[in-house]
Every structure is written in structure tokens, then in C-alpha cells.
Design goal:
Blueprint: E1 14-16, E2 25-27, E3 32-35, H1 41-50, E4 52-54, H2 64-73, E5 76-78, H3 87-92, E6 99-101, H4 112-117, E7 121-123, H5 130-145, H6 148-156, E8 177-181, H7 185-196, E9 200-204, H8 211-217, E10 219-221, H9 225-231, E11 234-237, H10 251-254, E12 262-265, H11 274-282, E13 288-291, H12 302-305, E14 310-312, H13 321-339
Parallel strand pairs: 3-4, 3-5, 5-6, 6-7, 8-9, 8-11, 9-10, 11-12, 12-13, 13-14
Antiparallel strand pairs: 1-2
Helix pairs in contact: 1-13, 5-7
Bound molecules: 1,4-dihydronicotinamide adenine dinucleotide and 3-hydroxypyruvic acid.
Pfam families: 2-Hacid_dh, 2-Hacid_dh_C
Keywords: NAD, Oxidoreductase
Protein name: Glycerate dehydrogenase
């Protein structure tokens, strides 16, 4: 693996004095940075070299009280996607808290609008986890459509009694219609993979893609999500969790799915009404589901676990060592750029959401 550039720099204690025409290097106090979870070791090491950092010693999430306490002291908070940084916590934050550098692409865990009102910048880690999450999406699509967990269970139980012409028949991906909801970075990476598998790619997005991008992806645009949902064999969700995407896949829309269709979600659980999905799956109105994320965090509808046509993963879409180190690199760059007096390259503002 290539060592990212940020891990090779050693200018932690110096900054260019812009007022003297950039000629003088001036020492300055290091930013105090608090990280809420354990991060891959190279990331923690580099953070410690660059900043006055307080790392988490055990790999448990901070309690709300711990978050409130560190937000009173830090210049920069590095939370992860499971830390809820809401208006109440932001209201108690110390005046010196200037940047929340999220270790994650999704920022639905942070009240970005309130942070902005309080003059606190927010940044995230987009792009570096696109391929990994798209790979996992394809893995989920294949697992559900080709019934991989059922085969696995048979083998693990030692119950396989040999090849049979009619055993565990799934569906062929080639030719199937994939409807992508949210055609941003990950949606487009899924589209490219799906085309390689011979799937027909369709999409609904807040904005239609440029014609050349659409052409390159060989993707068909649907202005109406309802109409797209009703015609697809697979629906894959890649829009962020925002007030406007909450339960976008609600009971009414789930009912539009063809009974042989499957639904996959590696975005955020809140986009699907999980209870309605469970009902639809149990009633045979939806053929299967592959989920990496859940509406209520780790509290998963127990009925989902009982269904053989449902594949559940523990939010591991971006879980590669490479991706997690590159997410750290993004966090480092965002903090360092901010420390140097510029906007973090991955700043998130409410208008983007
Ligand atoms: N499972 C995992 O481990 C991971 C999950 N994620 C999730 O994936 C999400 C997407 O990530 P990216 O593709 O990098 O984001 P992105 O910002 O590049 O793409 C999101 C797309 O959704 C579209 N969108 C927003 N609201 C919409 C609506 N109401 N209807 C239709 N389309 C809408 C946007 O226009 C944009 O094209 C993240 O916000 C995060 O929640 C991201 C990384 C890893
Ligand atoms: O980055 C994100 O948004 C995730 O869900 C975890 O990588």
C-alpha cells in the first residue's frame, strides 16, 4: 500500500507567516484535537505527531457526557459516524471548538446547520471509501440474488448432500434492472460495477447527471422515483440520510416493488421504513433484502434476522484497512488545512445536504 503524503510530512510545529510574504516560518501552538474512537494505528500515530491529540484508549463509543466534556475543551473534535453531535451538545460546546472533522462520509450524525450557526466548521471524508462501499453493495446484491447465505448455512450445518439441478436456484444478474437511488460517488461506482456484470442501470437522483456522464455509465434517468421503483429487479440505496430522504422508501413505495425485486441498502437505515420492509419481506411482497445499515442503529427488527432471503451486515461497507487509513488521511488533511488558516478541503455546509 502506498503511504499517503500526509504521513510523510514533518511540519507540525511550523506554519508559513502569510503576512511576511510567506518567507518566515513561525512556531505556533498545536491544535488540541480529541478523537472519539480508536482509529487505525498509522492514523493515530500521525495525528499525535501533528497535533496535541487526545486519543481514545479503549474501543468503545464515548458516552454523551464524555462527548459534552471533550467538546468543552477541544479545538477540533474527530467524531465517527456513530457519535451523535446534535444541537444540544453543540450548545454546550466551548468557544474554542472550531472544527468537527468527521471520520466518515455521511454527516447525518452531526447537526451541520447548528454547527454553522455557532461558527464551527464541519468536514467529512468523501471519495476514499467509494470503491469499498460499492464493492460491498455488489457483494450484497449477489449474496441476496444468488442465495449465498443459504448455501453457506447448508455447508456449515453439514447438510449438503450433493449437486442437484433444482437446488438453491437464484437469479442471473446479467440483464437484471438495477435502480440506483442517489447517483453520487458511491451510486456511480455501483453503476460501473453493475454494468460489468451485465445489469441494466437506472437511477433517480436529486439532479439529473450530465449527458456525457449518463452516457458513460449507460444509465437511464427516472425523474419519478415511484415509476423507477415499480419497474426494477434490484433497488440499491445511495443517497445520504437527510430530512428529505427520511423513509423515502416508505410503506407505500415498498408496495410498488415487483414481488421478485430485492432491495439493498449500504447508505443509511433511515432511508427505508424498516418495519414496512420487514412486513413486505414476510408477506412475500419483496423477494429479498441486503442491508448494511439500520434505522435504529444496532437495534434491528428481530423479524429481519429470521428471514432466509435477507442478508444483514454490521455496517461494514467501508471496512477495508486501506479505506480506513485513507479516511484518516482525509481527517488529517482537513485539520491541517484548517490549522494553516484555510477552509478544510472537505468542508460540509448545510446547502450541500
Ligand atoms: N455503509 C457504509 O459503510 C458507508 C455508507 N455511506 C453512506 O453513503 C452515502 C452516500 O455517499 P456518497 O455517494 O459518497 O455521497 P454523494 O454525496 O456523492 O452522493 C449522494 C447522492 O444522493 C443524492 N440525493 C440526495 N438526496 C436525494 C433525494 N432526496 N433523492 C434522490 N437522490 C438524492 C445526491 O444528489 C447525490 O448524488 C453517505 O451519505 C453515507 O450515508 C458512505 C460511506 C460508507
Ligand atoms: O463514512 C460513512 O458514512 C460510513 O458509513 C462509514 O464508513
Amino acid at each position: 500500500m502506498l503511504v499517503p503524503a500526509i504521513f510523510l510530512r514533518h511540519d507540525a510545529m511550523e506554519m508559513t507567516d502569510l503576512h511576511s510574504g510567506g518567507r518566515r516560518q513561525v512556531p505556533r501552538e498545536r491544535l488540541s484535537v480529541v478523537v472519539t474512537r480508536r482509529l487505525p494505528e498509522p492514523v493515530e500515530t500521525r495525528l499525535s505527531e501533528l497535533f496535541n491529540v487526545r486519543l481514545r484508549t479503549d474501543d468503545t463509543p464515548m458516552t454523551r457526557a464524555e462527548l459534552a466534556a471533550v467538546m468543552k475543551e477541544a479545538d477540533v473534535l474527530v467524531p465517527t459516524v456513530t457519535d451523535t453531535i446534535d444541537a444540544a451538545l453543540l450548545g454546550q460546546a466551548g468557544d474554542q471548538l472550531r472544527l468537527i472533522a468527521n471520520y466518515g462520509a455521511g454527516v447525518d450524525n452531526i447537526d451541520v446547520a447548528t454547527a454553522r450557526q455557532r461558527g464551527i466548521l464541519v468536514s467529512n471524508t468523501p471519495g476514499v471509501l467509494t470503491d469499498d462501499t460499492a464493492d460491498m453493495t455488489m457483494a450484497l446484491i449477489m449474496a441476496v440474488v444468488r442465495r449465498i447465505p443459504e448455501g453457506l448455512a447448508l455447508m456449515q450445518k453439514g447438510e449438503w448432500d450433493g449437486w442437484a439441478p433444482t437446488a438453491l436456484l437464484g437469479g442471473r444478474l446479467a440483464g437484471r434492472r438495477l435502480g440506483i437511488l442517489g447517483m453520487g460517488r458511491i451510486g456511480q461506482a455501483v453503476a460501473r460495477r453493475a454494468r460489468a456484470f451485465g445489469m441494466q442501470v437506472h437511477y433517480n437522483n436529486r439532479r439529473r447527471l450530465r449527458p456525457e456522464t449518463e452516457e458513460k455509465l449507460e444509465a437511464t434517468w427516472w425523474e419519478s422515483l415511484d415509476q423507477m421503483v415499480a419497474r426494477m429487479d434490484v433497488i440499491s440505496i445511495h443517497c445520504p440520510s437527510t430530512p428529505s430522504t427520511f423513509h423515502l422508501m416508505n410503506a407505500r413505495r415498498l408496495k410498488l416493488l415487483k414481488p421478485e425485486a430485492v432491495i439493498v441498502n449500504t447508505s443509511r437505515g433511515e432511508v427505508i421504513d424498516e418495519n414496512a420492509l420487514t412486513r413486505g419481506l414476510r408477506a412475500g411482497e419483496i423477494a429479498g433484502a441486503g442491508l448494511d445499515v439500520y434505522e435504529h442503529g444496532t437495534t434491528i427488527n428481530p423479524r429481519l434476522r429470521e428471514l432466509p432471503n435477507v442478508v444483514l451486515l454490521p455496517h461494514m461497507g467501508s471496512a477495508t484497512l486501506e479505506g480506513r487509513i485513507e479516511m484518516g488521511e482525509k481527517v488529517l488533511l482537513n485539520i491541517k488545512t484548517f490549522e494553516d488558516g484555510h477552509r478544510p478541503p472537505d468542508q460540509v455546509v448545510p446547502a450541500m445536504l
